[in-house]
Specification:
The structure is a single chain. The chain has about 625 residues and is α+β, with helices and mostly antiparallel strands. Helix content is about 20%, strand content about 20%. The protein has 13 helices and 30 strands. The strands form nine sheets. Strands 21-22-15-19-18-30 form a six-stranded mixed sheet. It has a six-stranded mixed sheet with strand order 25-28-27-26-24-29. A five-stranded mixed sheet has the order 6-11-2-1-12, with helices on one face. A hairpin with an 8-residue loop joins β26 (about 540-550) and β27. α2 packs across α4 (about 195-210), α2 (about 10-25) packs across α5 and α4 (about 195-210) crosses α7 (about 250-260).
């Protein structure tokens, strides 16, 4: 209907005009989901974290909190992350689970279980973020520990609540809008950033206007036409404004219900807050484990029981990714052009069978820290109930076809495995699994033949220097001449520098030695948002040299500020590149603005004879259909 037709009906136009006016007059009014009287309070029993079907249609499983939590609270136990080096990520299922801008090695990605893999994502309702990992070798230095290079150094990865959540609420990460745009399960749910806030502003304004409308028999038809006018004004469904219009119901009553439900985003996913009864019946508790140091030093870190667990109880149910062995194999050339063949470290955290190309990686919280002990094991693994598996799982031929037809070896998800207590487990007791006789023999042989790498005696990992308690004061260029940092370490500065729009037109490259243009500025943190600082620093790290160290008079402790010369990285972007005739000096950097990173090929994960062996899954559990003899071309 055209605007002219609306004008013919004086009453309708009057209502629509005033409603439209109210919308824009109150455009700044926000009705956020956490301001609405929805959800649950307090906590559900003893379990603080659940695994259950996601509220996102077609989104698979999700992670739900069992307790009400405020900003900066930990969602549950911390976990590890894995360092993928040579895998062609885009050719595997890992492409849906890795995180960008999260590691120092340019060719690598971090694959994080728990919050980084279990929690689904939503670009408006995200309520959790993943804190960066801490690095340490768990006191298993390469000069004396035959396990060096066989376990991940990245640990203490925490899920941090970013906005208040109710008990029973699904935890969502922010994957970035680009992740969702082309995913089929988000086809009807995808909106640009801020769309839900705008829709909530319209809805709040409609409700505000409703209070001034006289109740009459004609009201229902009038309000429907008025809201239709607003939606027509916003445009077609294909436009950004038209998409927002789809979030607005057709009546005042329905608009009020959307706001009461928590806003337009929450209204899209009404099941994103579950009751405790529903989670107990349909979900599984996944915080029965917590990280800690193993009772045996040679194991390093381990998984401990959060609470006492009875024999036969499920300790944790874990989702699995199935991947292929050949995708974890890679090669690289060292600086001397020596070719090295390697297998990704994550194979040590997978289940497998010697007669199959298929590997199974569990990624529930803390399960990657369960150590081996044949004699003292207190858990075993079994497949979860068929009702929790994909529909193809129950048919052996379909199960075979899933693997046989995956000719590119991309892999997949959807399978569920249970870790079950084989005896009573006490609170704080280490949870242990028998990895199998073949694994144990391989480990014993590795231990007997192991010798430390040639550089082990002089090697100090970069993360040691990154520890501000061990190295609170950094060395200047002059001090490094006499006492240099190890050759395996790179020091970088967190700094934002954008070259001005070429103020040096009169300076020619050939005159660089004679005409150096110096730019000086005072350092500011490149990320203004405090909540994003821990995650987003990597793009701003670049080489630097410390020119001077000045005592910080404002600090009660002996802290320093540093003056640096900013240098170019290997592939510096043009707008931040420092030209040969330029010198850029930044002053006022705190200790926290520096990172020590491992140079490529030096980290433990690159140790050539590091132990590599998947955990064994016995014949009674591993599907015969996935053994090579039943697969084509094997």
């Amino acid at each position: 209907m055209s605007l002219f037709n609306y004008k013919k009906d004086g009453m309708i136009w009057n209502v629509a005009f005033h409603c439209f006016f109210a919308v824009f007059a109150l455009a700044n009014a926000k009705m956020m989901a956490n301001e609405s009287p929805i959800g649950n309070s307090s906590t559900f029993g003893t379990c603080g974290l659940y695994l259950a079907e996601s509220s996102i249609p077609g989104g698979g499983i999700g992670m739900y909190t069992g307790q009400s939590l405020g900003p900066e609270a930990s969602a549950g136990p911390s976990d590890v992350c894995h360092f993928l080096i040579g895998t062609k990520i885009r050719e595997t299922i890992f492409s849906r689970y890795v995180w960008k801008d999260y590691v120092e090695d340019a060719g690598s990605k971090q694959l994080c279980p728990s919050y980084g893999s279990v929690a689904n994502g939503h670009y408006s309702m995200y309520n959790i973020w993943q804190a960066m990992a801490t690095q340490s070798d768990a006191n298993l230095h390469r000069k004396e520990g035959h396990g060096a290079g066989s376990f991940t150094l990245f640990h203490d990865v925490r899920g941090i609540i970013s906005k208040p959540v109710d008990a029973g609420e699904e935890l969502f990460m922010n994957y970035g809008a680009g992740y969702f745009k082309n995913r089929p399960e988000y086809k009807d749910l995808y909106y640009q950033a801020g769309s839900f806030d705008v829709a909530d502003s319209f809805l709040s304004s409609i409700i505000s206007f409703e209070k001034n409308v006289t109740v009459t028999d004609a009201r229902k038809g009038t309000e429907t036409r008025a809201i239709k006018f607003i939606k027509d004004m916003l445009g077609e469904d294909t436009s950004a404004w038209g998409r927002i219009a789809k979030l607005i119901p057709d009546t005042f009553e329905e608009s009020r219900a959307v706001i009461d439900a928590g806003g337009a985003a929450r209204n899209q996913l009404p099941k994103s807050i579950r009751s405790g009864e529903w989670l107990e019946e349909h979900g599984s508790c996944i915080d029965n484990l917590k990280p800690g140091m193993s009772e045996k030093k040679e194991r390093g870190r381990g998984a401990l029981a959060t609470r006492s667990i009875k024999k036969g109880d499920v300790v944790v149910m874990s989702p699995l990714l199935y991947v292929f062995r050949d995708k974890l194999e890679y090669s690289f050339s060292r600086d001397d052009h020596t070719k090295v063949n390697m297998t990704e470290q994550i194979i040590n955290y997978c289940f497998g069978h010697p007669e199959s190309p298929v590997l199974l990686w569990p990624y529930a919280p803390v399960v990657n820290l369960i150590n081996h002990d044949r004699a003292s094991s207190n858990v075993l693994v079994r497949w979860a109930d068929n009702r929790k598996q994909p529909v193809w799982w129950m048919d052996k031929e379909k199960r075979r076809q899933v693997i046989a037809n995956d000719t590119t070896h991309y892999g997949g998800s959807g399978l569920m495995l249970e870790f079950v207590a084989s005896r009573d487990i006490a609170e704080d007791e280490e949870v242990l699994l028998n990895y199998g006789e073949a694994w144990e023999r391989a480990w014993e042989q590795h231990s007997e033949l192991w010798s430390p790498p040639v550089d082990a005696g002089n090697y100090t990992a970069a993360h040691v220097f990154d520890d501000k308690t061990q190295h609170p004061v950094l060395r200047t260029v002059e001090e490094q001449d006499e006492n240099p940092y190890p050759s395996n370490v790179d020091m970088k500065c967190m700094v934002r520098y954008t070259r001005p729009l070429n103020p040096y037109e009169d300076v020619l490259d050939e005159d660089a030695e004679e005409s150096i243009v110096e730019t000086n500025f005072v350092w500011e943190h490149p990320i203004a948002d405090l909540a994003l600082r821990e995650l987003g620093v990597w793009p701003f790290l670049r080489p630097c040299r410390i020119l001077a160290r000045v005592s910080n008079s404002l600090s009660e402790q002996n802290f320093y500020n540093y003056t640096i010369e900013v240098l170019n990285g290997e592939s510096q972007e043009r707008d931040s590149e420092i030209r040969p005739y330029e010198r850029v000096i930044a002053a006022g950097l705190p200790r926290s603005a520096f990172r020590f990173l491992e140079k490529r090929f030096f980290a433990d994960v690159y140790i050539e004879d590091a132990f590599r062996m998947p955990m064994a899954m016995g014949d009674d559990q591993f599907p015969d259909e996935w053994k090579s003899v039943f697969l084509p071309g094997k």
